[in-house]
Amino acid sequence: MKIKNFIKCIFAIVLLIQSSASGELIMPTENTSEFNLQDFLAAFDKLESDEAKDNYAKDFVEMHKGNFPLLEDDSTVVFFYYGKQDSAGVIGDMTSWAEPKLMTRVGKTDLYYLKDIYEKNARIEYWLTYGKNSFPSIDSLNQYLVLNGFGPISELAMPEYERHEYFNEYIHGEKGDGKDLIHHNIPSKFLNYDHDVHVYLPPGYTEDIKYPVIYLNDGYDYVEFAATPYVLDRMINEDKIDPVVAVFVTPPNRFEPKFPNRMTEYGMNDDYVKFLADELIPFIDTHYSTKQDAEDRIIAGASYGGLISFFVSFSRPEVFGKAYSQSGYHSFRKNEMIKLVRDNDVKDIKAYVDVGTYETIVGANLLPADELNFTQGNRDLKTALTEKGYDFVYREYPEGHTWGNWRRHLIDALIYFYGK
Predict the structure, then answer these.
(1) Distances (CA, A) of 233 to 229, 237, 240, 255
(2) CB environment 157-169: b (16+ within 10 A), e (fewer)
(3) Contacts of 157 by beta carbon, 8 Å cutoff, 6+ apart
(4) Quick one: how far is CA 382 from the chain centroid?
(5) 389: Cβ–Cβ under 8 A, 6 or more apart, which residues?
(6) pLDDT tens for residues 311-331?
(7) How far is CA 286 from the centre of its chain?
């Protein structure tokens, strides 16, 4: 089933009113308008008893459960919380995952609301918060979820944002499957530790054909949170892209506070570049039927992985002729990557760069204060690439620093690089 504009197509709000004769809540006619918060609250205020108001709130939630948040128009949205907490708020892409926006209580009921405005084609991920000491949680009234390393996150798609049909199976926060991938543990003299990789082979793979290869940093995150093997299968079977081999390169100590990890590898680490170019690629090219020209290899990643992907291609263009940076951390070390682009001759690479407009504060408790604006960092990279005359594509989307963003737009990049 194609999912499109789910909260734009909610049932017209049914205002419950109290009969002056019996106090019984009744339904109005079907010719009600779309949801309007002011009308909703006005109808609530007309109710006289606390019991009637409690029933009004409860029936309202039951009527729309699974379809929250609700839209007033194509840019105005109303979040709701219904429960026993003393206070509630919304935290997410719209707040840069910092201070929550507090919700307003409807009378003395257990219902709270927050009205906000976003772009018509925005896609927002968020949690609900309850007071200072409670941990945020998903919006139980919203059926749409996206996964990341912290677990499921609630998702709001505005009317002009279209969820891709490939993710219909994952709209409730399901995890991608890597059971058909081939696992290898690669020793590295440059890194001084072994490295896990998983290899995807396209449908109908045969040694009689040479295949282009895409290398994905944060490899198993792309498997579980972006369902990339499934997406590749669909795109190849539907003849939307040429068959491709994919290599998922997973950093050590995934989700663990130990060293080494993705930060030690992805912080423009020359030893990691040598591992990829001089150890991993020879292994892959020896064990699989791959094309071996630089123009047939893509290095891709998100966030820190987007930075290292561009840095790898920039450093070794004779090996990786194409780079895809998703929300790359290009403000790293006070724009060091951008300075390299400006201060060096143009490299023979083709790049694809995208970022969300809700990425102006990323990693506030982890990164230096002057490096938090990933949106601006990517815009600065765009300016440098333009000034130097690089062959590249640049895209911005009204989304946040999330896997819901990256999995959707990976499809666009795959079509750009491999499309029929």
Answers:
(1) 6, 6, 10, 27
(2) bbbebebeebbee
(3) 5, 6, 7, 123, 144, 163
(4) 21
(5) 346
(6) 999 999 999 999 999 999 999
(7) 34
Q: pLDDT, tens digit, for every residue of 63-79?
A: 999 999 999 999 999 99
DSSP, collapsed to helix, strand or coil, labels residue 329 as coil
Long-range contacts of the stretch 56-61 (C-beta < 8 A, 24+):
56/16, 56/25, 56/109, 57/82, 57/106, 57/107, 57/109, 57/110, 57/111, 58/82, 59/16, 59/25, 60/16, 60/111, 61/111, 61/141
**Which of the four pLDDT bands, split at 50, 70 and 90, describes residue 134?**
confident
CA-to-CA distance for 239 and 106, rounded, in angstroms?
52
Asked if 229 contacts 180 with a C-beta cutoff of 8 angstroms, the reply is yes
- Cβ 349 vs Cβ 320: under 8 Å: yes
Residues 44 and 38: their CA atoms lie apart, in Å, by: 10
- Tell me the mean pLDDT in the region 272-297: 98
The predicted-structure confidence for 5-26, as pLDDT tens digits, reads as follows 322 232 222 222 222 222 333 3
Tokens of 109: 């009921």
DSSP structure class, residue 294: G
Task: Look up residue 53 and give its two tokens.
Answer: 């108001």
Pairing of strands 245-250, 297-302: unpaired
